[in-house]
Protein 1
Amino acid sequence: MVQGISLFVVMSTSWKFRLIVSALILIFLSLFFIPPARAWDQEDYEIFDLVDELENAEGSHETFYSWIGLEESATEKEIGKAYRKKSLTLHPDKNPDERTQEKFARLGKITAILRSPESRKRYNFFLKNGVPRWRGTGYYYRRHRPGVLNVLAFLLILASLLHYLVMWINFYQERKRIRFYIQEARELAWGKRMKKQDTRKRINVNELQFIVEGEYVAFITDDGDEFPLDEEEIMAPRVLNSFMFAAPKWAYNFVLEKFTREKEASHLGNGVKDSKNKVEHGSADDKSSFSSDDEQSMQSEAGGNVTPRQRRARNKDRRGNKNRR
């Protein structure tokens, strides 16, 4: 009894462990599909605003580097040189219109960011990983939109994990149910003191019938068949029985069974057709063999080549054949 209780405790602990592991896996998969987020500082907001301003004015393909005419690996000296060259064409003294003044102010802000090592590092990070977009109340990354295959793979893994978890829950529930009926049947057969008795008794538990004979406890079906109750007979679920592996196997067996049925039906149809052809050919052969002899005799008689003696002999033979039949 103590060993049984210890085993039950170990199983319960194992079930809790598997539940925790499954929950952690689900959390990990969920986090995998959730885009990363962080708290932006004021310098980041300035970069975001400037990126939006540049793209709205020059196009979404423009970056800080391409607008000034630089490579991403440009040195600070090259940045200063590109700034001076760009400022000559955008200086307000040469172009007094309002749009040019906005471009000149934007040039100064971009150059200041690229000249600052820390700001440039932050900009390069957003340039490589994507810049958050304004969503009415703040800057957020666009939600990751996985492809159809990614969604199907995620749903398949999620369904398999849930199916595997449900199988373990059913496993322990089934064992617990069998253990309950064994205990109840023995208690009714042996009494509350649980004094073992070897006599065979028929017991009703929750409108179900059981046979108790010593340690032996069996469930009685409506047909009178006995099925021994033993919780060890309940097999623990396996990963290969989960939805991920069971679904392809089921689909393969379904297609194979359907193909086999169609093939058997085709063979059966061909067999019936062949039998019908044989019957038709057989009747045609019988008809031809019958008509050949009779037609020859009829033709010879019609032609007048048969003598009266020969005619009487043939009639005699015919009457003899009828009598034998």
Note: The longest strand covers residues 200-205.
Protein 2
Amino acid sequence: MAPQLPNLQETDGSPEDPPVKSPRVKLSDGRYLAYRERGVPKAKSNCKIIIVHGFGSSKEMNFQVPQELIEELRIYFLLYDRAGYGESDPNPRRTVKSEALDIEELADQLQIGPKFYVIGISMGSYPIWSCLKYIPERLAGVAMVVPVINYRWPSFPDSLKREDYRRTFVKLLYWIAKYTPRLLHWWVTQKWFPSPSVMEKKLEFFNKRDIEALKKTEGFPMLTKERLRERCVFDTLRNDFLVCYGDWGFDPMDLSNPFPPNESCVHIWQGSEDKVVPYELQRCISRKLPWIQYHEVSDGGHLLVHYSGLCESILRAMLLGEELLLYRTSADN
């Protein structure tokens, strides 16, 4: 049986720490991962899906799927707090590879079977690339929604990288986060620094559909000034960012299709109006890896996962292989 700790009142010793309320599993290195289960009971499910949250999020993220579809396809969802997020212990030795190994060990601890599906959202997609690299034999299918781009990947043409204004910002923020963390911590907690509530209304960061979606979600609660003042929160976000945009040790565009020939079970979902992740580089990936099915939402921003009906479309494409012509865009455009 998995060593679960439901409703355990445990903290790390600080009187300010809230009690742990979620079930957790203990990993081989002694860390605990908190998780949440949704959908049909695991023992009665046909499809077991692990959902990996993004930057500043948690296992409490919304992934809205009609109950009728869950019951029809008998889907079991497993959401978990990545290392340092929510109620999971931090991993000071976090790497791209450790993210995949956390997923594999969580799946084994909870005995969900030899194969499972994975869905990664935004920065939660780099653990998915890691799964494709290090544990491809465990994957039944894959979906990445607005996956992050790492400009260090050698296969990206220099011309495309030079044209992307976001590259300079990411390089600068990476340098500051790596070499002057105290300065960064001071900077993001100052009164004059834009709060997330202000940023969520800015068209520089989100398109109109994103802003409408934010009115119906909780936004980014971990990115408030109050939370960022907590050193453990800041360290987790900084650590995650550095690993995501650091040297991965491999180029995803060198990966081979882990599934049988002529069978495509890997999907990328991207918005053409995404102001965080460039769609041009996503199209480049889909050209270099033709075994990935690329879906582009013509008026979509970075918050696709919160759009009405999108989660259902993601599942129907991944689980049923449905051709969704509305979101099929040629990478040659």
Note: Residues 1-15 have pLDDT under 50 and may be disordered.
Protein 3
Amino acid sequence: MSILTLLHRIQRGLSIVELVHASHPRWPLPSHPSPFTAPTLHISVLDSSFNPPTLAHLALARTFPPPLTDAPTSAPRDFDARLLLLSVRNADKQLKPGDATYEQRIEMMVLLAHDLARPHAAGAHLPDPDPHGSNVAVAIIDEPTFVGKSAILRDFLSRRISELLGLADVASASPSVVPPEPKLTFLMGTDTVVRLFAPRYYADEEAMVAALRHFLSPDGDDSRIICARRTSHGVSKVEDERVEVEMLEFARKIVPFERLSFVDIGKQECTYSSSEVRKLRTKADGAWRNMVTASIAGYIISRNLYSIS
């Protein structure tokens, strides 16, 4: 199906999540057909508005899993698969005049997925791609909250994995064959983490704690969060560090496990933002090209996005 058709399915309530692009038909399993024997499939989820995708998105998408100090086994060296996700019903952000349409954002996300598999993106000072860099997909979802997305994605991925392994028919499936369980790690910026832990996005504070406990607890979704440290205009380093400490302490109060970690994504990348790209583009300041990959810069120019002309 075309991107527009899949988008209409979501918007008309015919589906709640749709896979728009995958680097190969077996995603999120490895592309080769050999049996996947690990009990867990570790998948990173970069959920953003992608308006447009920047080198900060690319750097965060290439993040490795943090050490699991509270787990009996060591953390995987890398994620088994990666997912770029766009919510078409964001709790905070509605389309504004001059914004890229959802279809255009999805097309740029697919370009970003291809960039993930390349050794070096133009203008980016990033490490070489990991072995699983090409095991990436793009999806859209009709759910504004991370807690809701986690539950929906786990169900969607569990069914997809079973189908790929030929285990969709539970009655005929061999009891000795158990599909790997998807474990999700959500990648986000500091501003998003602050919203995740803000009571105003829930019915009340008690509801927030209950939802987050299920989201993060091993007895629930067992999801994790990796937060990129960002350099924000007008915000001091001391203030950023204070917010980081407060978020870590709050997360530990929710569940006594290491479920939230902060990472550096690069001295330049941490300063880039989609809003700054749009602002510079509107001013006809060519510096915005340094904040995106060459493929996305070409797309923005060809579609005349974020331009006042």
Note: The chain is about 35% helix and 15% strand.
